[in-house]
Design brief:
Elements: E1 3-5, E2 8-9, E3 12-13, E4 17-19, H1 25-44, H2 57-60, H3 62-70, H4 87-98, H5 107-119, H6 123-131, H7 133-142
Antiparallel strand pairs: 1-4, 2-3
Helix pairs in contact: 4-6
Domain Tc1-like transposase DDE: 2-111
Protein name: Tc1-like transposase DDE domain-containing protein
Pfam families: DDE_3
Amino acid sequence: SVMVWGAMSSAGVGPLCFLRSKLNAAVYQDVLEHFMLPAADQLYGDADFIFQQDLAPAHSAKATSTWFKDHGIPVLNWPANSPDLNPIENLWGIVKRKMRYARPNNAEELKATIRATWALITPEQCHRLIDSMPRRIAAVIQAKGAPTKY
């Protein structure tokens, strides 16, 4: 298996980062610096955006919050225990389904398969997932926080 970080917006996907070590705040900030910032330039240009992430310890570390403030990047306030709201989880599901019949023999082949599959994700798919956010939020509210179809 491999650990991978990726970014998406309604304009499409950004570059992938395959992590070589366990994710902690320092590693995450390195990913943000070398992958998220270029992805933001690619996907948004000079337009403003709000970064969305969950509350993983590396994401919510004080040093990571400082990194975002130092770079002038607003972060969406994220409620605890809300996986139903994050559209990138659905995107990873799409990637896994597209890879269903792939049989990589090692980590390098797995990375190549993930890269090739990620490259097939269209801006339209991303836009549909982002566009579903109001429905996702309404479904979670209606389910009173219980799991939803998303």
